[in-house]
Amino acid sequence: MNQVLTPMLEDPLSGVSEKAASMLANRKPNYSLEQPFYNDERIFKLDIREIFEKEWIFAGMTCEIPKKGNFITLNIGDNPIVLVRGAEDKVHGFFNVCRHRGSRLCVTEKGKVAKLVCPYHKWTYELDGRLIFAGSDMGESFDLNAHSLKPVNVKVAGGYIFVCLAETPPDIEEFTQSLEHYLEPYDTENLKVAVQSDIVEDCNWKLVIENNRECYHCNGSHPELLNSLQQFDDTDDPLATPEYKDLVARKQKDWDDMRVPYTLKYFGKRNRMTRTPLLDGVVSMTMDGKPACSKLMGRITSPDMGSLRILHLPNSWNHWQGDHTIVFRVLPLGPQKTLVTTKWLVHKDAVEGVDYDPENMRKVWDATNYQDKVLAEENQRGINSIAYQPGPYSETFEFGVIDFVNWYSERIIENTRKS
Amino acid sequence: MNQVLTPMLEDPLSGVSEKAASMLANRKPNYSLEQPFYNDERIFKLDIREIFEKEWIFAGMTCEIPKKGNFITLNIGDNPIVLVRGAEDKVHGFFNVCRHRGSRLCVTEKGKVAKLVCPYHKWTYELDGRLIFAGSDMGESFDLNAHSLKPVNVKVAGGYIFVCLAETPPDIEEFTQSLEHYLEPYDTENLKVAVQSDIVEDCNWKLVIENNRECYHCNGSHPELLNSLQQFDDTDDPLATPEYKDLVARKQKDWDDMRVPYTLKYFGKRNRMTRTPLLDGVVSMTMDGKPACSKLMGRITSPDMGSLRILHLPNSWNHWQGDHTIVFRVLPLGPQKTLVTTKWLVHKDAVEGVDYDPENMRKVWDATNYQDKVLAEENQRGINSIAYQPGPYSETFEFGVIDFVNWYSERIIENTRKS
Amino acid sequence: MNQVLTPMLEDPLSGVSEKAASMLANRKPNYSLEQPFYNDERIFKLDIREIFEKEWIFAGMTCEIPKKGNFITLNIGDNPIVLVRGAEDKVHGFFNVCRHRGSRLCVTEKGKVAKLVCPYHKWTYELDGRLIFAGSDMGESFDLNAHSLKPVNVKVAGGYIFVCLAETPPDIEEFTQSLEHYLEPYDTENLKVAVQSDIVEDCNWKLVIENNRECYHCNGSHPELLNSLQQFDDTDDPLATPEYKDLVARKQKDWDDMRVPYTLKYFGKRNRMTRTPLLDGVVSMTMDGKPACSKLMGRITSPDMGSLRILHLPNSWNHWQGDHTIVFRVLPLGPQKTLVTTKWLVHKDAVEGVDYDPENMRKVWDATNYQDKVLAEENQRGINSIAYQPGPYSETFEFGVIDFVNWYSERIIENTRKS
Ligand code: FES
Ligand code: FES
Ligand code: FES
Ligand SMILES: [Fe+3]
Ligand SMILES: [Fe+3]
Ligand SMILES: [Fe+3]
């Protein structure tokens, strides 16, 4: 799309895509990436163009826009996006850009509107994007139908809203069907955001994801998290202990009784989901391991559900417990600047101050997020040196990082080839 | 001039000028510009080089430097400029750059000096720019005359000071002569700045000007302004109502009696001036429509003068009323950063707290400026998206924007061709 | 080293080195540099690569890491460096970058450790850089010895620690031997930092050094400094007065009696050292000229030692007095951003509040640093203009600046040729 819009100025990425793809194709397997992938302005733009403007990106939850006219906004790279609930509960996604002179339409993070009205000159769009008013006098030849909002691809499943800015999005059906299945017990339409945190980390977005994809660093860094978290979620994990395997066997019996899915599934390297127990005796990621919300979600009757972990590359990981859910969204802001949004979800009828205390609920992941921010920023600082050279990932502890880096490399190689 | 100073490093704009000029030559008429004209770093530099370093730029008012030795400073792009009143009331303009090692000379926004003395090593220049002291020992071969301050072209008319940094400035005589004529009633040498506001808008300078060049957005955004402002200033405006035309006819009779000019004049697309009534019964751009200053300017005897509107592209618009005047100056700071300075002028003998209350005087345009800042910044945010594409201007409501964009395009095309 | 790490992306400096070297080779002698040497992003990167990553850089003082395990950190360009005292008092220098995934190891400005332990996954290095622990499972083929910390060259002399990031550092022996000799009286291992100041100046690092290399600007700008400072330090200085020469003769007799060296020595243009009297009757750079610390350094018995001035290009100047010492370190942060660190040193047994008052001690140079910051920033602002052109240095007042600029030019020309 870019080429059409700037037909004549030299593309600042000309030559970069091929070279980056070739560097990735020839990289040392199971080693961290070369320096420019973490700090070069050109590679950052490439990541936006080839990953964030082409892959499915986690944007938000359907429960954030429960009613017709509710909207949320976000930025994917430099692209303001709006997601709005239209007729018949349909979720529409648009570039949040007026077709007149290009103003943002919705200028708040969330809200409710009857129509999408541009704040500048009041051009007005239906919730499905059709332009219905363009001022009193645009001339006879003006064609309303040619000036609808530009849509983005939207995929809704299990309460998640994914968007894809490419014209031809990658196939994601198999994953979203499983997502529906795994999240059926939670009645995801009837949740709400109890707390939200937005932090900016001074590091490349891939360092945020790499940090998340291993628990090799947990012991030394995350005392609060380790009150509840198992450091592995797979009985085939080389680190899994006999005690963990026993616990899994016991819990899976309970979950079978409750008819909730738990099997570990991979969808390529992009997605992964599994239900895993928390520490024995612990039911929620809180400081004391007890539930943070007394009203449970959906058809869930016991808080002792372990944690349903869901990974969506490039930009989300999630923990679904019995009493509350934590969803994470990563959005790149610059070569060394990344926004990490955390939302804690509860049943929509849970009452703040009665059923849950938001300060208590957020404590563990506020601490953990801050610790991870420091780790990732220090990682960035060292990588920026001429002395940095790719180092070896541990196949035992860091297979998740290896998977992420391999996924990233494949996407860059394949997507640049197509474009 | 740049080429001479950096003879060997590749010009970061090499290739850009031609391509930008060609994009402008081939653009869709009456549509907004392509994205890079609003956010590309290279086009920003091109705008500085081809517009702000070559065209006449509004810098300040003569009444700000009433006496010999008074100076004001400003930055045009990266160029610090000083304007100083010299002998025989002459206004001199210089690059505010010492010929020794390049320090700025005058480091405050305004002041009064006997000579221009460099703060670094005290090289000393006459108010006409001649170097008269270069330390006690620069060697025998040193030639004071070869180290005068570098002058900029200065044009003074009707109290306005325009500067041009090019060696051969464009012709501006016809406009400045009319300016003298239209401003004769105001005795512009005997005004003073009652209030000043400097705001930084996070958007391209052209979006500030586009915003100013139409009142299509006024209804929805400017309640304070619409207490006084007519949304058109020309009886030939397609929007002009019969009531407006009647009002104009009545007022012009009064103005004829007062011998003040009012006819709408264009000077190419660069300048425009006209006197137009405010709303019926309103005499000044204040919250209540009443004068903000009880002492009138110059030979004016009634506050009921309507508003003399003056446009100077690329960087100024102005409202001259009977009691006070509002001048606006736009200076680009970056691809998405622009300084907007507003000055409210009154008769120099008007007494603050007696004849005028500055807080009252500034209220309407402080509110309006802030509203326009938000509109222009939201415009920028949408334009930055890959989804942005040039949209159609309304020929009825946005002819002023069309004129500006056409002027801009012509200047870029013509000025790059010459350089 | 860079070429190896980013084999495929175009080097953003390709073509720049040769052009910059050629501009310097053809520049007008005894004139300030062309504009891009003071503000161009590319030349800034060139300065980092060719000067700060290849020359000896003053990093800190040995007395800051008195005991085994003590460390200090600093950034040279984007390179985090750690200096640590190891076994047998040896000072080790490393890129402060973990060989696993590249995290910084030591994340504070100073501290004390038993081993160098990475905060991320606890890889552990001996104080001599050898990796001794890399987690519990890096696989059988993992070779600890291949993952030692990358060392930097370290040179210790007279209490100074210099580092060089190049593989083959320039010869500095002659200078460091003299440094040992001149600093013998001060027992530099037994000093401590009494006060430290870190200021960021919004100007190119070379403007900081140019500012320091002349006292042409002192009269107009440094009232506090001129309470103690002689504006020259060489009886052959064209500005030296008969009174100064007399004073030197008298003082040198005293210094001979004390067996302290004073002769002016040059080591190429890179280094210079000399002992010179302060103003007659003054013994220290304080507001009243009296000592700031009652406990003298080393074997010094009288505070009346004048000032031992030491210059080390590209990044340090120093004043050694009888009672306290002031060391300055300059580190570039960006084309127009520079960190200037000042440390005031005293005998390590001097007691704060008893032997010295830090607020009193820092007063003169805090004032002077601030004045110089303003001068250098105003210099930068003027240089950024298209009107700036290199101006003539005074051979009488600014020979030190000429020497610096010549040294810089030679290093760029020679180092780019080699790389
Ligand atoms: S930009 Fe949206 S209506 Fe004008
Ligand atoms: S820079 Fe102006 S006198 Fe030196
Ligand atoms: S980055 Fe240092 S141990 Fe992993
Ligand atoms: Fe973590
Ligand atoms: Fe407006
Ligand atoms: Fe100084």
UniProtKB/TrEMBL annotation, chains A, B, C:
Alphabetized Gene3D superfamilies for the sequence: Naphthalene 1,2-dioxygenase Alpha Subunit, Chain A, domain 1, Rieske [2Fe-2S] iron-sulphur domain
CDD domains, per the entry: RHO_alpha_C_GbcA-like (cd08884), Rieske_RO_Alpha_N (cd03469)
Names of the cofactor(s): Fe cation
Keywords on record: 2Fe-2S, Dioxygenase, Iron, Iron-sulfur, Metal-binding, Oxidoreductase
Domain Rieske: residue ranges: 56-163
Residues annotated as transmembrane: none
An annotated Gene Ontology molecular function: anthranilate 1,2-dioxygenase (deaminating, decarboxylating) activity
Enzyme Commission number(s): 1.14.12.1
Enzyme class: oxidoreductase
Designated name of the protein: Anthranilate 1,2-dioxygenase large subunit
Origin species: Nitrincola nitratireducens
Lineage: Bacteria, Pseudomonadati, Pseudomonadota, Gammaproteobacteria, Oceanospirillales
